[in-house]
Amino acid sequence: MAFDFKLTKKDLHSKARLGKITTPHGQIATPVFMPVGTQATVKAMTPEELKDIGVEILLSNTYHLYLRPGHELIREMGGLHQFMHWDRPILTDSGGYQVFSHNELRKIKEEGVYFQSHLDGSKHFLSPEKVMEIQEALGADIIMCLDECTPYPATRDYTITSMELTHRWASRCKERLGQGARGGKGQEKQALFGIVQGGMFQDLRKQSAEEITKISFDGYAIGGLSVGEDKVLMYEMVDAAIPYLPDDKPRYLMGVGTPEDLVEGVARGVDMFDCVMPTRNARNGTLFTKQGKLGIRNAQYANDHKPVEDDCGCYTCRNYSRAYLRHLFVANEILAARLGTTHNLYYYTNLMWGMRKAIEEDRFGEFKKEFYKNRNLE
Amino acid sequence: MAFDFKLTKKDLHSKARLGKITTPHGQIATPVFMPVGTQATVKAMTPEELKDIGVEILLSNTYHLYLRPGHELIREMGGLHQFMHWDRPILTDSGGYQVFSHNELRKIKEEGVYFQSHLDGSKHFLSPEKVMEIQEALGADIIMCLDECTPYPATRDYTITSMELTHRWASRCKERLGQGARGGKGQEKQALFGIVQGGMFQDLRKQSAEEITKISFDGYAIGGLSVGEDKVLMYEMVDAAIPYLPDDKPRYLMGVGTPEDLVEGVARGVDMFDCVMPTRNARNGTLFTKQGKLGIRNAQYANDHKPVEDDCGCYTCRNYSRAYLRHLFVANEILAARLGTTHNLYYYTNLMWGMRKAIEEDRFGEFKKEFYKNRNLE
Question: Which chain A residues are within 8 Å of B335, Cβ to Cβ?
Answer without folding.
Answer: 41, 43-46
